[in-house]
Amino acid sequence: MNLEFDFVVVGAGSAGCAAAYQLAKANVGTIAVLEAGLTNRVPQVKIPFLLAWMRGSKRDWKLVSKSQSELGDRSIEVTRGRMLGGSSSINSMVWFRGRRDDFDNWNVPGWAWRDVENAFEEVEELIDPRPFPYPHPLSSAYALALGDNGDAPPTPERESAGVFQVNIHDGARWSAADAFLEPAKQTGRVEVLTQANVDRVIFEDNKARQVGLTDGRVVIARHGILLSAGSVGSPSILLRSGVGPAEHLQEMGIAIQSDQPEVGDNLHDHPAVGLHYAGPRTGYGLELAQIPHWVVSPINWLFRRKGRLVCNIVEAGAFFRVNPVGLDGDDRPDCQSHFIPVMMGYKGSLLAWGSGYSADVNICRPFSRGRLKLFSSDPKKPPEFDLALLSDERDVATMINAVRRLREVIAQAPFGDLRGVEDYPGDHVQSEEEIKQFVRDRCATAYHPVGTLRMGEGAAPVSPRLKMRGVDGLWVADASIMPSVTTANTNAPSMMIGSRAGQMITEDVG
Known about the structure:
CATH class of the largest domain: Alpha Beta
Structural class: alpha+beta
CATH superfamily of the largest domain: FAD/NAD(P)-binding domain
CATH architecture of the largest domain: 3-Layer(bba) Sandwich
Number of strands: 25
Radius of gyration: 22 Å
Mean pLDDT: 96
């Protein structure tokens, strides 16, 4: 196998696939796309409802955070896809660009809303997000909780509820690998290497020249390397390559290639907590009346691409504000909710006997910030990352208000005879201290880690042109470069970032 290419893309996830497509379309030369995991062409990836069973599997990086001091010293599991398509092959397929002012507020030249809007439109021509096709009646009712939004999905631009837009085509998942990587491969200029786990980038005269794999192979890049391994993977590779805070690299016994103090800083995610409701014949669940439906569901999906196996778990949702309007007139939604018409996830097993539904709420723009660093220079050992969830008291106050507002929103939804009762934590949990304890006991994340290689001017590790500072021939494109998380699910912005990276690299190398 020829292991020398013009460009090497590290990571076949949401951003990496989009970048590879743009590079191939521009005909910049030969391109290698390195993916640590396996193929995505298996039923558990393609069938939307089975996403929950992939968590903790060999197609999940199975990342676990450092114990969180504000959450009773619990460690938080962070699901990340380890396969072609990356997290777009393991997520709930929900599509949101974010708020327009998310990008304006990054304050990065070339990344305001007016700069990225066209890139989103280009991405959406291929990913083609569509309204969720077969919502459960509960989901359709939740979509009316904040008034009639018509057939439109909820929008973070204002308080709204609705059925989500999703990356589901003909009843099956449509990942970044489907939308971007397959067309890129068809150009004949892209070679995809699976089970190619990257150890480090190798430099010659301060230019990124090679990618060393954990199995000892070396992939040569004649013109440049793009890191798209995610907010945990990309900084970890850089640190093992000697690019990062000098003091930490010395502690790890790693030769310093470039002292970049902020590599690994600014880690954050959307903190989230859920309320669970139960009642016979409400949501999808395990009860006698539903057994016939579950029995025929595989046949229904296989031959008709319909039925409950098309459910992406989170079918609908809402954006709303839970804090008082700010002195500056800020009245933006500050929380997002995902509605789940399925009895699952809170009794110690994935599916529990009975019927029910749940809704979570997460903070759109958290203040808390954590950090990632290496636990060991051994690439087979995961890094140590601290999400620092709820370490800022402003986030704690928001979560308390969010639980109260979520209860109100659920009460407003016209569920009719399908309405259940709050089973967990239970409506007896009412006082501020009781809700705070519930939040500390159950808070997790929305699986949207960002920020560890923020782009910007000055001391930011990555330039507005997505070039890694302090070295040559190395770019970064994934959610790690976000200065702050967008006001919704991060999959769409990650693809937009990857697409723009491919275009920028093409321009930069002439």
